[in-house]
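During the no-cost extension, the postdoctoral fellow (Dr. R.K.) reprocessed legacy sequence entries with the updated structure-token encoder. One reprocessed record is reproduced below for audit purposes.
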Amino acid sequence: MRECYDITPVLNKSQPLAVKEFQFVKNNYVIFNSKIPDMKGIQDLITGDQKIISSKYLGSCDRYLAINNDFFRNENFDELIQKEYKPLIDYEKVEEIKSEDILIKSDSNYVYLNDNRYLLWTSFRRQSDQDIYAYGNTFCIMYNEFLEKLYVCDQQKVEVQGHCIYSFKWKVDQRNFRGNEVQLCLCEGQLCLSKFRTRRVIGLTNEEIIKELTLNVEKYLKFISGYGTVFNLFQNNLAALEVIIKQLSIKDRQILPILICQKMLGGESPLDFSIKNHQQKIINLILSMITKYQDHILFNQLIDKNLCELIKQQIDLQEYFQSNLPNYEILDLSFPSQHPDEQELIEGITLDNPKDVHSKYDELFGRKLNNNAQQDDFVASIEYHLINLPVTLKEKPQQLMNVLSQTENPEYFENKTIQTIINFKWNQYTKQFYKNRFYVYLIFMASFIFDIFYSTYASQSNSDPTQQDGEAVLETTPPNIWLKISTKVICGGVLIYFLIYEIQQIRVQKGEYFNDGWNYFDFSHILAFTTFCILDFTSESQEYLILIKILVIVLSFMKLFFFLRIYDGFSFLVQMMAGVFKDLKYFMMFFIIIILQFGMIFLVLFQAKQIDEYNGINKLAYFLMAFRISSGDFQLDDYHSQEDGLVIFTWMIWLVAVLTLNIVFMNFIIAVISESYERVMQKLVAESYRVKAHMIVEREQLFNREGLESISNFPNFIVVRRPLNTETNDAGEWQGFIKDLKYTIRTTAAKSKGELIQSLHSIQTQNVKNGQKLQKIDEAFELNSKNVSLEEKISKLQQNSKNDFDLLKSEFNTKVDSIDDQVKGLKNDMEFIKSSLTQILQKVDQ
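Re-encoded structure tokens follow.
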């Protein structure tokens, strides 16, 4: 890395600087904790020069370096840092920041403005009535969804750190915002406003948080770089997460944003945090959210890197494996859905992007299928699936099988994804490996069986019918020594081959080698056969030789049973036998205690008399008698010899023994074995895949570095081609009630799910139509309301006009009447004037 990037490590006393010693970086200088108490180290990253200063002068030194980058090489460096730091004399001190001021740079005590002016933060804080100015980090750098850099200003913080931002503060001061609600974002010269209440919400109590989320959950669903979504904020709060999920359940899934994601690129997701802290309830909640709202292969990276740890913590992954996250169905015209060749194929492939598989049909299956179909040939429906677990398959090639072999949960082996991975690894490099070893072992078995038969029959003693002195003469035919040697050489050569394999296992597995019971049989088999060969050529005692032969026979067939597990037809039988003995261990211990009880009772009743049938094992005779009673083999010859006082009591004990040992316990053992058989048969498929997982782990442990890096053995994707059947093929699962029940439940659940989805779509469509109708009705109602209100206004205007008209009419009539009166008065006046004039004229004439 140093050669590629031309980097120089920071050294502290000739040792690389540890992370815990690092403090901060100022320009091109790194400041770290010195190994000398109360001392700090400063190193120039360009020249590599170092200086050691006292911790109490660190603040002064920091401020000098912030102003003058060459201060580190000043001759009076040690003397200057001991003096109180003062800014340069050409800077003018001011007491406030105005809107026209431009921020130039800052340090922990001073903010430098344009026109060579500076401001002391401590005096500025004293002028403020708020305590928020005591916090740092006014500006922080964040990234939006397009990975564009944003400079974010929090009005609750006033100290500037990290970057010098020019011509920015005046834009902040031009606008008035409430400091506890608003942050300003500057991106490419554009000023954006956003509201953040994360600090306030995190500081609330659980009751207040639940109330806030219940009322306003929408505003917390947005992603903020460095903070994530609401699930990142409350990733350690189970009550808050349950409220969020409850609120989301009533929302429309189509309008919801991405809910579970990393805080930043390469950062930690809520699932990573909960897995690291073993919070199983929160893990289940987050998994359900991912499978429900983010059911797409792109989001599988959140689970893929944690799959082994989830299996190790026994998390229920049934819903995850049935989703589209780990299993991508390939629907492409280049992958034919109808084909005359219906064989199932599992192929590994290395891809940069899972979508690239659409152009890989010929590479995967084109040359492996029979395309010579006749016109009347059967055509099968085919489906194609991509196993989308690149991190688990490629970056952790051995860990998956290791955790699967150790898990006690058989449900992991019942889903198609895990079965496909196991089948690929089994067919690719495991099955043939064990088959080759099995063929080698068959050579040992053939040679060993021949040796046993030959040495036994060849060593038989034959009686000569001629008599000498009344005794028969015995003639012994010794076996051919070279034939014995040749068979043992063949068997020894095979066992040396397996001994090398066992040594390799011990070297790789170390202490874990002794956790597998089959390894004890393997190693004991090699030791027992070696002892048998030595005694066969050196010992004259046939008793020890017979015992060691029996032991070797038992161990040889145990190893044969181990190899028979390669074949599915024998695998479940071997597992069933092992499961039955495992289930019977406590029952057998109790059964032996009862046998011991009745054996001691019979020993006392019959006063330890010798029984001819048990000659040679008289000490155990009465215990064997009790066992024979339990198996239904009753021996009653010695009961009549009992004294008169004990005969009745002896028969009573016999009846109790028969009732307890033969009737009760034998039926118990039949019931236990039947229950164990049913349990094994119910989980037959899971147990067969568990056996394969164990054998795959053993095979992968013997891979060298080239084998582990092989693309053919460990690809990052697996593609499976299989015929599309209407019924589930359980590959030999128990043909009984449980299988029918499981199939009925699966079929009913799938049918109900389809009907619910169809009903939901129809309801949604009807809701849209109803919404459109309601909108039209609202518009008509609103128009009608407007018309009604207009009519009311017109009627009111008409009424008002009528009233005004009536008023005008009455006033007009009044005025007309008054005018009539006036006219009548004028008329009378005119008549009076006329009569007066007439009289005057008459008088004048006279």
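Residues 1-8, 128-199, 462-474, 726-736 have pLDDT under 50 and may be disordered. The chain is about 55% helix and 10% strand. The remaining legacy entries will be reprocessed before the final report is submitted.
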